[in-house]
Amino acid sequence: MFLLRLLLKNAFRHKLRTVLTLIGLVVAICAFGLLRTIIDAWYAGVEASSSTRLVTRSSISLTFQLPLGYAQRIRAVDGVRAISWANWFGGVYITERNFFPQFAIDPASYLALYPEYVIADAEKLAFLRDRQAAVVGRGLANKFGWRIGDTIPLRGTIYPGTWTFNLRAIYDGVDAKTDENQMFVHWSLINESVRQSTRRAADSVGVYIVGIDEPNNAALISQRIDALFANSLAETLTETEKAFQLSFVSMSEAILVAIQAVSLIIIVIIMAVMANTMTMTARERLAEYATLRALGFPPGFVVRLLYGESLLIAAIGGALGVAATLPLAAAFARAAGTLFPVFQVSALTMALQWLAALIVGSVAAAWPAWRMSRIDIVDGLRHVA
C-alpha cells in the first residue's frame, strides 16, 4: 500500500507532463483498438461461416449464372443433405448511399440451411406465403425504421424497374457474429419477371448453397460436385463457405495489411513518447535515487520505483483507452452504416489493448531503470550541488 501511494505521488509530481502522456496513451490505445475492430469487421463474414455449408458457383466468375437444373444433380451427390440457391438482386433503396446486401432466394430451402437467422413462426409463414414478401435483419430494420407490414421500394440495377416488396418478417441473429443487415426476397418472383423479358436468362441462379453432413468430407464432396459438370458449358467451382467469404476479403488484402501496420506503428510511436517521459523523470530524480542508495536501499528498489511508475501510467492510460474505444466504435458503426454488418469490439481486441499498454509501460522504463540501477552514489549526490 505504501509503495502504491509512493508511485501515485511520483507519477503525478509533474501533473501537466503526466496528463499529456496519458492523453497520448489514450489516443494510441483507442486508435489501436478501433483499427483492430475494423479488421475484425472485415473478417466477420468469414468468422460467421458454417463448416456444414458449401457454395457452388460458376468456375469463370460470380457474374456468370448456373442453370437451375443443376440443383437436382447436386442434391443426388453422396454426402449432400440439402441444397438451395440465391441470386444477387442489387437494388437501390432511395439512394446509392443506402447500400445493403439483397438476395433473391428459394425461401423454404434457404432458411432451413441458415438456422442462425431466427424468425418468429408467424412471420416466417407470412413470408413463405407472399411471393412479394421480404425478410430483413433486425439491424437493417432499425436503421431505416422499418416495421412489419411496411412497403419497401427498390430500384433495380441488375433487374430493371421499380420493385415493391412487403416486409413480412424480421430476423434476429443467433449471436453477435450474425449479419443482421441483409434483405431476402423470393427468387421465383424475380425469375418470373426475367422469363417475361429475357427468356434465355430465366431459370438460372448465381450460387448454390449446399448443406453437407460431414465437414471433414467438404473437399471430397466439392470434387464430386465439380466433376459432375466438368467439360460442360457451365462448369462449377465448389468451395467451403469460409473459403468463399475469404475470396472477397482477399480483394482488400493490401488495405488490411496497411491497417495492421498502422496499428502497430501507433503503438511504437507512443512507446517512444513514453520512454522519453520516463527518461526525463529519471534524469530529474538522479539525486533522489542516489540518496536512496546512500541510505541502503538496493538497486532493485530503484528499478521497482521506475517500473512501477511507468506501468501505473500505462495502466491508467490503457484503462481509459479501452473504455473510450467502446463508444467510439459505436459511433463509427453508426457512421459506417451497412458497410460493416458486424462491428463490435471483441474481448480479444480489448485484451490486446491492455497488453499493448503494459508493453509500452515496460519497454519505456527499461533504459532509465537500467541506468538508475547503475548510478554512482557519489556522482549522484554531487549532482545535487
Describe the structure.
The chain has 385 residues and is an alpha+beta fold. It folds into 2 domains: 2-44 and 253-381, no CATH class; 60-234, no CATH class. It contains 15 helices and 12 strands. Strands 1, 3, 4, 5, 6, 7, 8, 9, 11 and 12 form a 10-stranded mixed beta sheet that branches. A two-stranded antiparallel ribbon has the order 2-10. Helix 13 (299-336) packs antiparallel against helix 14 (347-373). The protein is elongated, with a radius of gyration of 30 Å. The two termini are 33 Å apart. The model has no long low-confidence stretch (mean pLDDT 86).
Principal-axes geometry comes out as elongated
Give the integer mean of the pLDDT values.
86
The count of helical stretches stands at 15
In oligomeric terms, what are we looking at?
Answer: single chain
**Order of SSEs, N→C?**
HHHEEHEEHEHEHEEEHEEHEHHHHHH
Number of strands: 12
N-to-C span: 33 Å
Proportion of β residues?
15-25%
The level of helicity is 55-70%
Largest sheet: 10 strands, mixed
Going by helix content, strand content and strand pairing, the class is alpha+beta
- Could you name the ranges where pLDDT drops below 50 across 5 or more consecutive residues? none
**How many domains in all?**
2
Rg calc: 30 Å
